[in-house]
Amino acid sequence: MDHVKVKTLVIHRWFDERRTDQRVSHQWRVKGEREGGREREREGERGRERERERTMSTMSTMMVCRLFRAASCPFPFTAWPVCVQGPRHDSMMCTESRPAVSSFDDPEVQKVLMSMTTLNVEHIFRPVKQALQPPTYKVMTDKQLQEAHEKAIEKAKELLTPPPVLPERQPIDEVLSHDKCIAGLEASKYIFTDISSKISERERLIVVREVDGTLRKATWEERDRMMQIYFPREGRQLKRPPLFNDEHLQEIFSQENHEHVLNLCQTQFEPDSPDYIRVHKRCYEDLAERGKHDLLKSTRYFPGFVWHLVLTKQFEGLLFKFLQDQAIEEAANLIWLFNRLHPESRSSVEASGKALSKVELIQNFAQTDAQNVGKIDLALQAYLVTTKDYVEA
Amino acid sequence: MMGEAVRMELELGGSSFRARSLAPAVMALFSRALRTCSKVSVQIASTVDTPVKPLLWALQTRQVPVLWCSRYLCSSNAEAPPEEFDPVGRYREKPWEYLESEEYMSRYGTMPIFTGYRRNHKGLIPPQRPRKTCIRGAKISGNPCPACRDPKIIFHPKNVKLLQQFICLYSGQVYDPSITGLCAKRQKEVLKVIQEAKDYGLLTFTVPFMVFNPSDLPSDHIATRPLPMPPREHPWYSWYDPIEPSADELAKYRRMFRKYLKE
């Protein structure tokens, strides 16, 4: 890392093909996930061909712009592989192959998770430390006030959109060429970054020329660093702040600043980077251990928190809390989610095909898969008693 | 011990003394204290009964060294080596403990350390910039800034309570030296330490809200996806590996240089 010199080269694209926005969807769907249909297949074929051409074009531009062009090193054009469409992106956290298990982006799952994350407008729009401005006063009719209130709720829902939950990214370890003839000519590595303006971050070509002449694609860490140098993001630091190390995280958690750490995580890391996933995991586990589930309530991290707990089967504390707070709807939703994510478990097997009430669903779970059976049973009994008393009264 | 030394100073009636007359080792350690003591030595006698203001109290606690007393008054310990008295002492390693101490409470109470501090300047309008530093080598200026006048005030990332005194509660911005009265050197130190505390997660602040673009999500683009390379039977360039010459060429050269062949 001491000897890295950075050089940039603007790599002009020979092919400026029309970029069709195939990816935009409010469900964060990625290219490749298409519904069936012959038309779609044909489009897929065309897309693949276009991608092949694009590969060849970008590779040929790279060749033209090479800094070390030795006359005696003929570049083997025939060696370039034909582009093959890679594996489909899978947005599920669980790695085992299951038949139809929901993903985080599933609309039903999202609906359930968002209902658990209650919309507390006072909490979402609480005053934060920011540059002070003099207050504005508006004179409004009742109708305008109502509209303003609705607008505020819309904005609150936007602020509650959960960040994406993605599997960890695969490390990039690909050599593009071995040019031993130029080994030892330079004292340090060179990193070439394509700084053309209208390219997405994930589609930028960043390559590294090592001292021994190897031309390879940059690793994820190098990519992140280069992107931050040439296209800096607000709030992101070039070097990872030490608060994300495990020893410092513990101190922050003891001060109950979990939301602050998660906010910093969003600005600093990419959603599929190992650091992002590790910090989120630590945060969620610490919250579950301390029983402080309410700290993330009505924030955009609560859906991810619940998702993680249910996936790792650590949600019984949360279930107990829901039952204590008389939130039977949320408790039942939690069990429903568990059944969806673990279809082979006894609870989901026994509940499948039956139309169980909320209380029965929870009882079924308590009898089959629960670890703290006694605690959940007690809480459920307490709930039934209180509701019965209320009903009777 | 502290009380005794102060009383001794008062009894002597504020007689001026020259720092230069004392041993160099002592001078190096306590010259700052001695200078300040010499300036207010006359005043101490008059203010002994009145409540002592924070500034003077802070200066008083820079003790007249034991050596000074022993040399001029007590002859018994004249030969003993000088005891190094460090007023900062235990707070050097754990500066945050000072804020919990009674001493701090009596000096500052619950107000920030810069409350009531006033710069000395000509005219109505104070200078735009603070002085560069209060302490130059062994010399301390007159009317030092709130951070320099009390040596126990140490800026450390873990000293969160002290750092928060310099951050606005409502806007999260660090106060300008025109409000706090710190010298430029200490202001720079405060900014650096506050940033360090934020980097270690000891201080919270408002983080900009991150909105996710669909284009930021993983894609199948070749920039990040590995291209499947076909298995290579040959080296990258034909001349990387040793090349065996063809039989014809070999024969040709053998014939050409047959006179010089050793076999």
UniProtKB/TrEMBL annotation, chain A:
GO molecular function: structural constituent of ribosome
Stretch list, region Disordered: 25-54
Pfam families, sorted: MRP-S22 (PF10245)
GO CC, one annotated term: mitochondrial small ribosomal subunit
Protein's name in the database: Mitochondrial ribosomal protein S22
From TrEMBL, chain B:
InterPro entries reported for this sequence: MRPS18B, Ribosomal_bS18, Ribosomal_bS18_sf
PANTHER family: MITOCHONDRIAL RIBOSOMAL PROTEIN S18B, SMALL RIBOSOMAL SUBUNIT PROTEIN MS40
Gene3D superfamilies: Ribosomal protein S18 (4.10.640.10)
MF annotations from Gene Ontology: structural constituent of ribosome
Subcellular location: Mitochondrion
Protein name per UniProt: Small ribosomal subunit protein mS40
GO CC, one annotated term: mitochondrion
Family, per entry: Belongs to the bacterial ribosomal protein bS18 family. Mitochondrion-specific ribosomal protein mS40 subfamily.
Swiss-Prot/TrEMBL GO biological process terms: mitochondrial translation
Primary subcellular site in the record, as a coarse category: mitochondrion
Assigned keywords, A-Z: Mitochondrion, Phosphoprotein, Ribonucleoprotein, Ribosomal protein, Transit peptide
Highest taxon listed in the record's lineage: Eukaryota
Annotated transmembrane regions: none
